[in-house]
Amino acid sequence: MHLYSKKMKSDTPKIRIEHLIKVYGAQPQSALQLFRAGASRDDILEKTGQVLGIADVSFNIYPGEIFVIMGLSGSGKSTLVRCINRLIDPTSGHIYIDDEDAAHVSAKRMRQIRLNQISMVFQRFGLLPHKTVVENVAYGLKVGGMGKKERRQKALEMLETVGLTQWADHLPSSLSGGMQQRVGLARALATDAEILLMDEPFSALDPLIRRGMQGELLRLQQELNKTIVFISHDIQEALRIGDRIAVMKDGYIVQIGTPEDLVTRPADDYIQAFVQDVNRAQVLKTGTIARQTIPLILGQDSATAAFSQMQQQQLKQMYVLDRQGKPVGILHDRILEAAMQQGNVDITQVMQTDFPKVGASTSLEDIFHVCRAGVPIAVVDDAGMFQGVIESSDILASIGRLSVSAEKTPQEPIVSYK
């Protein structure tokens, strides 16, 4: 479950990409000139034989978010993530990591950044077959100069984190594919780097194991709060784990947004095609579709005023909030009317304290069992504050609604491709 606006702890980017361009070929400057003059990727290839891998990409990644970069083969996603840690040198542009431009530092400084600030998990595990599991996990610590005893202890701690302590002294060949990928993840975590780059780390795994590893990543992220750049070609995977998603095509970023942005406000037909078969109930959150309604505030609003509002607004129920704005009960119009006729105006005596309540970041799929006939569900934020209500009709309308036209501007920036 992700609610990006709530989750973001800092307005200062951890990674800032500015006008990043990568051209593959012996004479990239000729292709760069054509690109800046407005030539397309195909035109550049035809005229120069150079390949435009990344086409003037700019975006920010914030501390503690899982930022997914996705697209089809050849879209530029793997090139982009490898530029961040300079496994591939960009042709032009800037890559700021904590305000240091990694695109233009020396090779020596870049090695230090890789050792201390950035770790990477590869698609094919990348384990050393002749070394034990614990030695693989400790390898980055060894390169960094940590002593043998200390690095083994640190590696064992990371293996415990991913549930593989008992396999510490076995060779990687003794482990299943999913277990080997956990070793790769433990190795990346062992250096305590704040940034984790993951290049399609689960794509080689069977579907069931893959889903389990996605869940494991989300569990670890709750504990460790890394800044994660995750590459994927799978829209379902991206929507499940991403706080935000950047969709690439031909080296360009077509759209950046939360999973809900992509599903409900696709930038164009290309994004629409990606999300057309998505289960909207798994993606949409209650906070997105919650409707504002008039509540009664205990100690502030009278029963008479509440009943008058219910009649004016044609409400059958009204939620009761305490002075902090948290729901504590629900009033039903007939019960309130009967109590007023009898002279009983004590709200706490006539309100129903057993009512359905869900968090704003809960998916619609997860609240089906909470729905009750005729009773709206209270939606609250992470602090328990009342955000609005949802009824069964709202859920059905949201998951059945066709996606909004691509002409409608999404909340997050869109970079149109040429």
Can you walk through the features of this model?
The chain has 418 residues and is an alpha/beta fold. Helices cover 38% and strands 21% of the residues. It is built from 18 helices and 16 strands. It has helices at 4-7, 28-36, 41-48, 77-84, 107-116, 133-143, 148-161, 177-190, 207-224, 235-241, 259-264, 269-275, 280-283, 286-289, 303-313, 333-341, 347-350, 392-400, and strands at 15-24, 51-61, 66-70, 92-97, 100-101, 118-121, 195-199, 227-232, 244-249, 252-257, 296-297, 317-321, 327-332, 357-359, 377-380, 386-390. Strands 6-7-8-3-9-10 form a 6-stranded mixed beta sheet, with helices on both faces. Strands 2-1-4-5 form a 4-stranded antiparallel beta sheet, sandwiched between helices. A hairpin with a 5-residue loop joins strand 15 (377-380) and strand 16 (386-390). It is globular and about 85 Å long. Mean pLDDT is 86; it is low at 1-6 and 402-418.
The percent of residues in helical segments reads 25-40%
Total of helices = 18
Alpha-carbon distance between the two ends: 34 Å
Question: What shape does the CA trace take?
Answer: globular
